[in-house]
Amino acid sequence: MDQIRAYLPLLIPLFLIQLALMIFALLDIARREKLRGPKWVWVVVVIFINIIGPLVYFVLGREEE
């Protein structure tokens, strides 16, 4: 239990960053009409591939209008 407490100051910011990236990416997916690929695929990528999923979406998934 003490080992978990030692890592909490490191894990909490990572969790918050991951959550913020996921929410921002999902909102962006919902608002855009055109994406590179189906929306449902990007939703699955963002939700199930933790921190890297939203980053991949922002780099590869968005089509500039």
Q: Which short descriptors sum up this protein?
A:
mainly alpha, elongated, single chain
Describe this structure in words.
The structure is a single chain. The protein contains 3 helices and no strands. The chain is an all-alpha fold. It has one domain (2-61). Helix 2 runs antiparallel to helix 3 (52-61). The N and C termini lie far apart (50 Å). The mean pLDDT is 90.
Number of spatially distinct domains: 1
Separation of termini?
50 Å
Average pLDDT reading: 90
Q: Secondary-structure element order, as H and E? A: HHH
- Oligomer state equals single chain
Query: Regions with pLDDT < 50 over 5+ consecutive residues?
Result: none
Task: Report the biggest beta sheet as strand number plus sense, adding barrel if it closes.
Answer: none
Roughly what percent helix?
over 70%
- Rg over CA atoms, rounded to whole Å, is 15 Å
Topology, number of strands: 0
How many DSSP helices?
Answer: 3
Strand content: under 5%
Categorize the overall geometry: elongated
Helices and strands: which structural class?
mainly alpha
